[in-house]
Amino acid sequence: MHPSLCLANAVSASTLFFGVNGLNILITNDDGFGTANIREMYKAVEAYGHQAYIVASADNQSGKGGTVTYTTSRNLTVDSEFGIVKAGAPSVGPDPTDSHIWYYNGTPSACVQVGLDYVLPRYANFSVPDLVLSGPNYGLNLGPFLYTLAGTLGAAYTAVERGIPAIGFSGGTSVQTPYYWVNETTPAGLKDPATIYGQLAADLAQQLITNVAKTGGGRLLPYGYGINVNIPVITSYKDASCVAPPYIHSRLTGGAVVDKAVFNETTGLFKYGDVISEGTNTCINGDCSLPGETEILDLKCNSAVSFFTVDYDAPLQCHNAPDLKGLLEPLVGYINGTGTTGGNGTVASPTPSSTLVAVNGGSVGLRASIMGLGLGLLGALLAL
């Protein structure tokens, strides 16, 4: 690991956690308050016995990052997404069928702030949540570039900056659907992908909560820390080949892309392309022995779990950092682990098509056919 926290922040874990069971949880996203994923996560969280409130955008606000935009209109000028709330309604208000679900006509970061400073203090029996959950997003958010670009993560790091632990979830299924389209069963006889995404997210949050409870309770994460989770495409519409992807510890850097401008000589227009850059993938602060989250998702049916902080200062004089990975175990394992618990509680084993190796703190992904590489040799490579 390349530690990056000063001793003043590396307080013992027992002093850095807050809630046990029956927590107060704020839920948001960047796809809108009426989408299936957020509603299914809301139901799964409440099924664990927690009190949850949704405060999310009235319409799709993807790609806004941490931008804070408050509406300048007191009322909606157009219908909300899926026509759930009609034009002329207040720009902030509850869902017609559930007083714990709120919409606001603003960006994801603004929705978090409206939730913390208006909805919860006025309409809930708590004002400061124990945890903020953002997502599950329709589409993956992998690496440092998308960390800054994604509204899902913008909402999460806004909460972290307000002193509240937060987890951002993103899923590989990119087609948005309304909550009332969720199927009890799919043509394959399985749960709807939105239901599975919601349950996977709730399971990981509950693993964190359960492990913290075992320490005696307290804050769920140290100040300044959050978690980025990326879950692959759920295949339950057609088969069961990927319905319980195991969670794997990862880091943001490693195989991650950043945008580049691609000019079309015929149209005279630009579009974006992807480039893998050392500027994006040099491991500085994270645990450089872990594979990149992009590399984990390239292994198909595996989910990546990366811790992040909102301290963007370069590590100049800090030499101690808490190891938080144990707080998510056994649900979250390692790339070479066996018997990893899948998201629905079944035992699954990550079966990588290649072996990932971080060399000298860099971001080298060895995607060769070296499935037989032993742990001893892997350790030797990591020691280079």
TrEMBL record:
<feature type="domain" description="Survival protein SurE-like phosphatase/nucleotidase">
    <location>
        <begin position="25"/>
        <end position="235"/>
    </location>
</feature>
<dbReference type="Pfam" id="PF01975">
    <property type="entry name" value="SurE"/>
</dbReference>
<protein>
    <submittedName>
        <fullName>SurE-like protein</fullName>
    </submittedName>
</protein>
<dbReference type="InterPro" id="IPR002828">
    <property type="entry name" value="SurE-like_Pase/nucleotidase"/>
</dbReference>
<comment type="similarity">
    <text>Belongs to the SurE nucleotidase family.</text>
</comment>
<keyword id="KW-0479">Metal-binding</keyword>
<dbReference type="GO" id="GO:0008252">
    <property type="term" value="F:nucleotidase activity"/>
</dbReference>
<dbReference type="GO" id="GO:0046872">
    <property type="term" value="F:metal ion binding"/>
</dbReference>
<keyword id="KW-0378">Hydrolase</keyword>
<dbReference type="InterPro" id="IPR030048">
    <property type="entry name" value="SurE"/>
</dbReference>
<dbReference type="InterPro" id="IPR036523">
    <property type="entry name" value="SurE-like_sf"/>
</dbReference>
